[in-house]
Recover the amino acids of this structure.
């Protein structure tokens, strides 16, 4: 979910008084640059990684999640994985707006509020002139996502126990949001997850914090299966020694996104008018989005290619804006992909690093038996000229975001296999 920047509103007096009661003004002594040892069988784990099993799918669920343990004793929370945002947050056991989970699945805070004067608080604020009313003021946050959803809450720290691939254990104190006011927009109901695992490259992400503590390399990767599930990892131990193609990340002063490009679109291995696309890789987006001009060109290419084939527009399917029906309902993508041509994104700043998009990487078959285009018009939903590579186009690929070398890589992979294999 690509985040839109938004200022932090002042909480009401009643809410401040309540939060002051449930969040004692005691703060963790173990900050991100602490010299104190972290409880671990091997405090230096830079040569290791942390792996998580992924659940979910593009359709019909619309998101992928991992389970993250938080607290002491730990409690497990299912979080939507999102490379399009930095902040991790969980629904807070507080007077809550927009919280749909039962109370026993909410996060119960135990203190350790992040102070407003903490550098992490300044990092989460969009305003350049971040101001604190007092040294002990709590750090409020608000994030608004491109789909118009949002989360408002307070930043705190708690233990997040992790088991590394080298067998070591750690319980670092990491900062995340305790969200007490969530909004959700869209046709589908809000996800039944407890929050969002922000995997962006900003300072507030869990990934950046683990790297600051010296526990991992600043690398994250995921493998999303087109059949559902997959795996996620922090660190660089699970990167294959060969077969990965790399392209450099673009430096952006306005947002901490995994943006790359420019890239030219090929249709059936032929050049098109769609050129120079800058693309954000966003695991928090179910579908891929092109700006209006690129989207219109792509739709025309597909429509012209479908002439004479036994497919016609299915205007009554609400699943996605553009769908087609056949002589009889489709049961799977295997029934229909032969009617569609492969796409390819060629990155002009790096040689031999095309992103292959076979029909399976841009189509879904709906419960109505129609086939729908999973590349949508982003301008129509307020993305402007922003282009997003979402989950549908990241399936069955090992995708690696290397913040140390400022590059992103991918390779075809069997994401049904475990991360160990």
């Amino acid at each position: 979910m690509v985040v839109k920047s938004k200022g932090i509103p002042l909480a009401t007096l009643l809410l401040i008084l309540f939060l002051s009661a449930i969040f004692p003004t005691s703060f963790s002594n173990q900050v991100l640059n602490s010299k104190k040892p972290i409880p671990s069988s091997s405090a230096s784990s830079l040569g290791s990684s942390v792996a998580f099993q992924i659940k979910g799918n593009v359709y019909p669920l619309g998101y992928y999640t991992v389970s993250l343990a938080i607290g002491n004793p730990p409690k497990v929370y299912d979080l939507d994985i999102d490379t399009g945002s930095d902040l991790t947050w969980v629904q807070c056991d507080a007077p809550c707006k927009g919280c749909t989970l039962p109370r026993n699945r909410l996060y119960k805070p135990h203190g350790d509020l992040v102070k407003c004067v903490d550098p992490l608080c300044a990092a989460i604020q969009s305003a350049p002139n971040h101001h604190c009313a007092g040294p002990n003021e709590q750090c409020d946050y608000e994030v608004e996502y491109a789909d118009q959803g949002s989360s408002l809450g307070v930043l705190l720290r708690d233990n997040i126990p992790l088991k590394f691939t080298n067998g070591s254990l750690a319980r670092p104190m990491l900062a995340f949001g305790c969200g007490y006011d969530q909004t959700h927009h869209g046709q589908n109901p809000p996800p039944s997850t407890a929050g969002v695992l922000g995997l962006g490259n900003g300072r507030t992400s869990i990934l950046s914090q683990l790297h600051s503590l010296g526990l991992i390399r600043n690398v994250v990767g995921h493998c999303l299966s087109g059949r559902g599930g997959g795996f996620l990892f922090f660190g660089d131990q699970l990167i294959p020694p060969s077969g990965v193609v790399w392209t450099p990340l673009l430096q952006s002063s306005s947002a901490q996104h995994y943006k790359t490009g420019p890239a030219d679109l090929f249709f059936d291995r032929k050049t098109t008018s769609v050129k120079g696309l800058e693309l954000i890789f966003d695991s928090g987006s179910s579908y891929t989005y092109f700006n209006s001009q690129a989207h219109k060109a792509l739709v025309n290419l597909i429509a012209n290619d479908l002439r004479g084939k036994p497919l016609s527009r299915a205007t009554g399917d609400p699943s996605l804006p553009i769908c087609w029906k056949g002589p009889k309902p489709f049961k799977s993508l295997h029934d229909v992909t032969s009617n569609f041509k492969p796409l390819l994104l060629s990155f002009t700043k790096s040689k031999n690093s095309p992103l292959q998009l076979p029909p399976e990487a841009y189509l879904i078959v709906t419960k109505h038996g129609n086939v729908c285009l999973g590349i949508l018009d982003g301008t129509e939903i307020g993305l402007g000229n922003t282009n997003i590579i979402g989950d549908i186009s990241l399936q069955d690929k090992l995708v690696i975001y290397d913040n140390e070398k400022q590059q992103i890589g991918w390779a075809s992979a069997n994401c049904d296999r475990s991360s160990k294999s």
Notes: The CA atoms of residues 26 and 63 lie 36 Å apart. The radius of gyration is 22 Å. The domain at 48-232 is CATH 2.40.70.10 (Cathepsin D, subunit A; domain 1). The chain has two domains: 48-232, 245-410.
